[in-house]
Amino acid sequence: MDFIDGSMFPENQQKLVITAAPYGPEWIPSDFPEDIPVTMEQQIQKAVDCYNAGATVLHVHVREADGKGSKRLSKFNELLAGIRARVPDMILQVGGSISFAPESEGDVAKWLSDDTRHMLAELKPTPDQVTIAINTNQMNVVEQMCAADVAGTSLAEPANYRAYREMTIPAGPEWVEEHIRRLSINGIQTHFQLANIAQLETVERMMRRGSCNVPLILTWVAIGGGFEAPNLYNLANFVRACPNGSVLTLETSMLNVLPLNMMAIAMGLHVRCGIEDNLWTQRRDRKMGTVEQIEQLVRISREFGRDVANAKEAREIYKIGTFYDSANETLAENGFAPNRKPGQVGFTQHARR
């Protein structure tokens, strides 16, 4: 991404898109009973509350009636239908892991099978997005957490801590390409959840081969443990690697969430918050629910002079419903240099329009 003069001026930036992640599949209800929705009506109402607070993208996981993270697609269908009826304009982004939470005592935290995750392309009503990981990768979500982050929660229990420490994401090239194909056929946008520049480079290569003809809508997930750490140097390198036609959201965990989101607001990027990412205020004097986190970002963004996108504007920014017909179109629309033609030497650039 190029930051020319005036790029930091709010009048030259897109309006801010806020993604809310209020369902927190790594937690159990007793970890934050005031804010973790359990019944289907509570889960639907949580989406409504996030939307009313200013979030226009909802990262969706679902719970069973006993509070455990659900792995049943029928429950996702039920939740999606309920949210669509109440906030029809909200962008519904289903988490591609479905739920990595253990099903019962003694089970490990893990992502589900390739075939099960492919079924996300068949959800009804159709979500707007499904998130996807690129390249099989360690997902040790507790590596950069400290004792204070998990104090008093189920992640402080040794067995649970170890399960999340040993979690991996299966995302090999054949599965990834097939999953993107299925999502696109069903009109679902692929939202890339990327851990590092190497994964971004894999996406670019897929686009160059014509196996990924979609907008580059992505999140930099800086959570450590196989992902990049949320520091200024990693962020700057990743942002520099993103082409100008991409749409970038920042995600991290615990007390890193607010400072990273403030950077995103200042830079014209987009933000994600919610109890899936963080439970605490910056002083850790109390837990902080998803709606309060959204309200905080709305307030800060307005202080920066940057307006928050409404649902219609967020759909335009995120290019919901947009797909491309060829590698050439995909590269041009996302801001990559074109593929090299036979015999062409030197650096490539797109023709002037």
TrEMBL record:
| Stretches for region Disordered | 334-353
Database matches in Pfam families: BKACE
Q: Which domain of life is it from?
A: Bacteria
Keyword annotations for this protein, in alphabetical order, are: Metal-binding, Plasmid, Transferase, Zinc
| Molecular function GO labels | 3-keto-5-aminohexanoate cleavage activity; metal ion binding
What this protein needs as a cofactor is:
Zn(2+)
Q: What is this protein called?
A: 3-keto-5-aminohexanoate cleavage protein
Q: Which organism is it from?
A: Cupriavidus metallidurans (strain ATCC 43123 / DSM 2839 / NBRC 102507 / CH34) (Ralstonia metallidurans)
Taxonomic lineage per UniProt? Bacteria, Pseudomonadati, Pseudomonadota, Betaproteobacteria, Burkholderiales
